[in-house]
Amino acid sequence: MFPFIPLSSTLNVPTYYLVLSLTVCLCLIWISARADKFELSRKVALDLSLIIMVTGFIGGRLFHVFYENFEHYQEDFTRIFYFWNGGFVFYGGAILAGLCCLLYMIFVARVQFEDYLDLFAPVLSFAYVLGRVACLLAGCCYGGSCDLPWAVNGLHPTQAYASLWELGVLFILLGTETTAQALRPKLLKNPGSIFFLWMVLHGMGRLLMEAFRDDFRGPSLGLSISSWISLTIMALGLFLMIRRPARRS
User: For the chain, what is the radius of gyration of the CA atoms?
Assistant: First the structure.
C-alpha cells in the first residue's frame, strides 16, 4: 500500500488520483482509436466518455455518502465536497453513468446504442483493472485477515483479486471481439453481446471480491448491496444476450 507519492516535505500526490488520472487519459486515447477502427462517431464516443467521467464521479460519491457513511456526512454536509479524502462506490457511478449515457444515445445522439456498448466494453474493463490497482495502493476496499504468502499487511488483497479477474475478462472480451461472427457462440453474435458478456463476467468477479471484503459494506440483506447489484447485473446481461435482438432501422 502506497497512498501518497512524496514530492517534497510539504507536498504529496495521492496515488489513487494519480492512477485514475492516467487511466482516464489512456482510456480516452483508446476509445478514440476504437471509434475510428469500427467506423463509429468519434464525437459521440468522446461525448459518452465525458458523461461517464462526470456522472460516474457524482454517482460514485453520492452512493458512498448515502449508502456507506451517511451519519458522518449528516453531521456536516460540506464534507460531501471533501472528495480528496476518498469515498466512492463503483456501482453508484456505474449506474448513474449508464442511465445518463442511455438517455444521451436515445434522445440526443440517436445512435444504435448496442454498437457503442460494444465499443466501450473492453475500455471499461481496462479502466476497472487500473482502478482496482489504485484501490490497492490507497489501501481501501480491503479484505479480511489472511496468512497466505500473498497477503498484504495481513489482509486479503481483494483489490488485486478483482484486478486480476477483470484482466482475464478484458482478454476474453478482446478475444471474442476479434473472433469472426460465424465462429462465435450464438449468444455472442448479436450487437451489444460483448458488453452483455462483460456484465455477466464482471458481476461474477465482483461477487468473488465481495466474499473476501472486510471493510464496511453498508446495510445488508443477507448479502451486501453490491452483491445484490452484481447478481442483478449478471441476470440482466444474460437476459440481454439470449433475447431476440430488435431489428435495426
Answer: 19
Residue-wise pLDDT for 206-224, tens only, equals 999 999 999 877 777 788 8
Residue 155, helix vs strand vs coil: strand
Cα 79 to Cα 5: distance, rounded to the nearest angstrom: 24
Q: What are phi and psi of 219, to 5 degrees?
A: -60, 145
Residue among 115, 113, 92, 89 at smallest CA distance from 101: 113
Per-residue pLDDT at 56: 96
* Gap between the Cα atoms of 99 and 55, Å rounded: 9
CA-wise closest residue to 104 among 88, 92, 120, 125: 120
Whole-model pTM: value is 0.92
Which residues, in sequence order, are bridge partners of residue 4?
Answer: 14
51: how many CB neighbours lie within 10 A of its CB?
A: 20
**Which grid cell is 87?**
469515498
